[in-house]
Amino acid sequence: MAKGKNRIEKVMHEYKEGTLKSGSGGKVTSRKQAVAVALSEARKAGARIPKKKSAAS
Fold it and tell me: Can you tell me the distance from the alpha carbon of 57 to that of 42, in angstroms, rounded to the nearest whole number?
């Protein structure tokens, strides 16, 4: 989990500074989008982060 935690902290710090970019190159403006980017990068780094649970219908 250390890999994931460090990656998430780094990305959220970039978001707070206003330097975080999305995959398409645009600036990330919402906190939800920043969290999504952080979790995505952590997964790519090899952290075992569960996928979001879908709503039961």
Answer: 29
Residue entry with tokens 């707070």? 16
3-state helix, strand, coil in the chain (%, to 5): 55, 5, 45
* Residues 1-57 pLDDT 10s: 577 888 889 999 999 999 999 888 889 999 999 999 998 888 888 888 888 777 665
Identity of residue 13: H
> Contact 3/45 with Cβ under 8 angstroms?
yes
> So where are the chain's domains?
2-44
Question: pTM for the full model?
Answer: 0.76
Helices (H) and strands (E) in the chain, counts: 2, 0
Interatomic CA distance for residues 7 and 5, integer angstroms: 5
